[in-house]
Design brief:
569 residues, 5-stranded parallel beta sheet, Rossmann fold, 21 helices, Isoleucyl-tRNA Synthetase, Domain 1, alpha/beta, 4-stranded antiparallel beta sheet, aminoacyl-trna synthetase, 14 strands
Length: 569
């Protein structure tokens, strides 16, 4: 709804500027939200520079030329100093309510757009996902959900490292140590991987065995490949379980060895050589990217002729580029250099570059994590800890409910708290996940938003039981005139523009912040305005319809964040 309001404001402003005898580019209309209006334009500032006139006088002149067409979502346009303010009409408010009720779960969805291939998580299969990994998963999955709601056709992939050095160590470890298959498979893999690294640190001569395994895989040794595959399959099966619990789903798991077997790695190395950028450095083949601003060269082939993860990643990106309109990668800050080098190399050989979302790391109050050293808290352990704490809260708040209900709500609240607390922070900022704060209902995190949705459901259910509400009854949105009612309607109307902004800028935290503000607006409305207790029947029906609207948009927001929307808590 807000996108249409902005489109109408743009058209009205452009016409008024033209009628005032002025010219300006669309990109220089400079719209922004304001506490004084629904939309404000700083166009007069730009025009003042172009025409050497007073911006305040220009704003007044433009407003005097404004003509608002009949049936517009713009009700009034005024000048406030150099700003041109746009105020929504009553039609905009009424249409927002009716549109939410008509579209329900489709409210906020954009028109069909391009196809995107989004890669995220892609953690090495040498153990379970830990907290450091799941920020990647949560950002990536939320972005995919946002992009789909914005209208994009999104395919999500996990790029599986099934032949690098770490996997060689895992394979070597599986041969040397007994796997405890009573454990979750990725945890069993982590146990032997940690033991193997202790052995390798004690006896550096074993490194030659690891190198030999990598060479065997590169030349297609069947037994070694099978050994790698078995280890990777075990780890990935456990990782998939963890992701599913986190409500994260990938459409495809693509093995990097695919591109070695197909010859794509060899082909891309030859094409890079043909650019004249390669040279030999201590026996290794490296790429000079100094003209792209990289002092450090990119190694694409070891001195023994074997490929690197980066080389295979280049081939993977060429394959992706041939299938979709856009490629998006979600990487941790430690990939900042390599992702830049990857993009530069692809550009040098004329292959579509990925858009890269770099995120800073998340940690626990306990500190940083390392699978190699065995110093980590697995995501599974974290989820168990959080849901156990959530269960305690549910038992305190709802002692009369069944055990099944309590466990179900605790899982929804616990996982929701993890997802929300991690995604609410802008990707480029590091964050510490404090599970106690994340579960605090008063802190306005996921439990607060989920509770707001459950409250809306409860109000509607109670109204039905008391025969105070018929969902099919005709409503009169024009009766919703209280300040908190109007604030809630305007906040709901913003949903499509929030999705649009988050999709354009690849910033999922924008939606997280909006969901909290929407819950705030709903709770303020319910606090100050009687709903079921409203004496006038038409007003009561309209206010219940507004509660239903809030329920719908809260549910849509939570769903797009990958968080469950419980009907009761």
């Amino acid at each position: 709804m807000f996108l249409e309001l902005k489109a109408q404001a743009t058209s009205i402003l452009k016409d008024a500027i033209q009628k005032a005898g002025l010219e300006i580019e669309d990109s220089e209309l400079y719209f922004e939200t304001s506490s004084y209006a629904d939309l404000a334009s700083r166009a007069a500032f730009r025009l003042a520079g172009l025409y050497k006139q007073n911006p305040k006088e220009l704003a007044t002149r433009i407003v005097s030329a404004v003509e608002i067409p009949d049936g517009s979502y713009i009700g009034e346009v005024s000048a406030s100093g150099p700003y041109i303010n746009f105020h929504a009409s009553r039609l905009y408010l009424d249409r927002t309510v009716t549109t939410v009720l008509e579209k329900e779960e489709k409210f906020g969805c954009g028109a069909p757009k391009d196809k995107i291939l989004l890669e995220h998580t892609s953690a090495n299969p040498n153990g379970p996902l830990h907290v450091g990994h799941i920020r990647n998963s949560i950002i990536g999955d939320t972005l995919a959900r946002i992009l789909r709601r914005a209208g994009y056709n999104v395919e999500v992939q996990y790029y599986v490292n099934d032949m690098g050095r770490q996997i060689a160590v895992v394979s070597w470890a599986c041969e040397r140590f007994e796997l405890d298959l009573s454990k979750k498979p990725d945890s069993a893999i982590a146990d032997v991987y940690i033991k193997a690294n202790v052995e390798l640190d004690k006896n550096p001569e074993y490194v030659k065995e690891i190198d030999a395994l990598m060479e065997k895989v590169e030349v297609g040794d069947v037994r070694t490949i099978d050994s790698f595959n078995n280890a990777v399959s075990l780890a990935i099966s456990g990782i998939k379980e963890t992701l599913l619990r986190l409500n994260v789903v990938h459409d495809k798991f693509v093995n990097e060895s695919t591109f070695l077997k197909s010859g794509a790695v060899h082909d891309i190395v030859e094409r890079i050589k043909a650019t004249g950028r390669t040279k030999t450095d201590k026996g290794a083949l490296v790429v000079d990217l100094s003209d792209y601003g990289f002092k450090k060269t990119l190694v694409i082939q070891r001195s023994n002729g074997t490929s690197l993860y980066t080389t295979r990643d280049l081939a993977y990106h060429e394959w992706k580029a041939g299938q979709v309109d856009r490629i998006i990668d979600v990487f941790g800050a430690d990939h900042k250099l390599i992702s830049g080098q990857l993009r530069a190399t692809l550009n040098a050989i004329g292959i579509k570059e990925p858009e890269v979302v770099i995120f800073e790391f998340v940690s626990l109050p306990e500190g940083s994590m390392s699978t190699r050293r065995g110093q980590f808290i697995s995501a599974d352990d974290l989820f168990d800890r959080v849901t156990e704490a959530a269960l305690e809260q549910v038992e305190t708040r709802r002692p009369e409910t069944s055990c099944e209900f309590k466990k179900q709500v605790a899982e929804m609240v616990g996982i929701g708290a993890v997802r929300y607390d991690i995604v609410r922070v802008s990707p480029e900022k590091s964050t510490v996940f404090n599970w106690k704060e994340a579960l605090d209902f008063e802190k306005q995190g996921a439990p607060y938003i989920q509770y707001s949705h459950a409250r809306a459901c409860s109000i509607l259910e109670k109204a039905k039981e008391e025969a105070a509400w018929d969902p099919s009854a005709k409503i009169e949105p024009s009766l919703l005139v209280e300040d908190t009612e109007i604030d809630l309607i305007k906040k709901m109307a913003l949903f499509d523009s929030i999705i649009d902004l988050a999709a354009r800028e690849l910033k999922p935290h924008v939606l997280a912040i909006y969901a909290r503000e929407l819950a705030d607006a709903f709770n303020q409305f319910y606090r100050f305005v009687p709903v079921i207790a409203a004496e006038d029947e038409k007003t009561r029906v309209s206010r219940l319809a507004l509660v239903n609207c809030a329920r719908i948009v809260l549910a849509n927001s939570l769903d797009t964040l990958g968080i469950a929307a419980p009907e009761s808590m």
